[in-house]
Design brief:
Elements: H1 7-21, E1 28-32, E2 38-43, H2 59-65, E3 78-83, H3 87-95, E4 100-105, H4 115-118, H5 120-124, E5 128-131, H6 134-153, H7 159-167, H8 169-180, H9 183-189, H10 194-222, H11 225-236
Parallel strand pairs: 3-4, 4-5
Antiparallel strand pairs: 1-2, 1-3
Helix pairs in contact: 1-6, 2-3, 6-8, 6-10, 7-8, 8-10
The structure holds zinc ion.
Length: about 240
């Protein structure tokens, strides 16, 4: 839950939520110094009116372009991104001399961290990529799947969502659930605090987990397997 999220991640998700509220792809990023203090933060701006080149207004690239390298040594900084960087952002991270990247969610659509293992140039740059996963990933993929559902409603195909669903079905299921009542749109309109949104989504995912378990339990009961389970439990007592 939100109270267990570190300050760096709180900062990054705050930025992602700003993107969501402004109608952009909900991805946020922060740069932290060695002490873990956030020195810079930014978000995806692909749907902001003042953005003149919307396709490439990604969180990580926006962030790094505003880093003053006469003040900070990029090698000493850690970049936190709520989503695995795309080809452009991964390239920008490497060329900007960032050596530590932490990302919350794997991007099975266009994430490029595998380049540090397979490409000779990327691997020579010694960038450490840390994949966080767990609740941080579930939250990110839920808000991003919700964003994709808007496009699908307008007629886009669902190939990106399909990739997310293969990797993290609970996030996509939760996004679909929330989309039915437009919960996130209402939360964005009300400019709800990101912590409140995070806790709501994680609670939804947990309840979905229980629902899936109950479904499996019901189907097992129908197949007679549950009797075995009960017997086993009785014997244990
Ligand atoms: Zn990018």
């Amino acid at each position: 839950m939100w109270n267990e999220v570190t300050d760096a991640w709180k900062g990054a998700f705050r930025e992602a939520w700003i993107s969501f509220i402004s109608g952009s792809t909900p991805i946020g990023a922060v740069l932290c110094d060695r002490e873990g203090k956030i020195i810079l933060s930014d978000h995806n701006r692909n749907h902001e009116d003042q953005t003149i080149n919307k396709k490439i207004a990604h969180a990580e690239a926006n962030l790094l372009r505003s880093l003053d390298t006469s003040v900070y040594d990029p090698k000493s900084l850690t970049l936190y991104s709520t989503m695995e960087p795309c080809p452009m952002c991964m390239g920008t991270i490497v060329m900007a001399n960032i050596k530590t990247l932490r990302y919350a969610a794997a991007d099975t659509h266009c994430g490029m961290t595998h380049l540090v293992k397979i490409d000779p140039y990327y691997s020579s740059q010694n960038v450490s990529c840390v994949y966080e996963g767990k609740e941080l990933e579930q939250f990110q993929l839920t808000i991003q799947s919700y964003y994709e559902l808007r496009y699908i409603e307008q007629g886009a195909d669902g190939h990106v969502l399909g990739k997310f669903a293969e990797h993290c079905p609970s996030a996509v299921k939760t996004a679909e659930r929330l989309f039915k009542t437009k919960w996130l749109d209402k939360a964005a309109e009300a400019e709800k605090d990101v912590g409140e949104v995070y806790d709501h989504i994680i609670t939804e995912i947990k309840s979905l987990g229980n629902a899936v378990v109950s479904e499996a339990f019901r189907s097992a009961a129908e197949n007679g397997q549950i009797i075995e389970t009960n017997r086993h439990l009785t014997e244990k007592k």
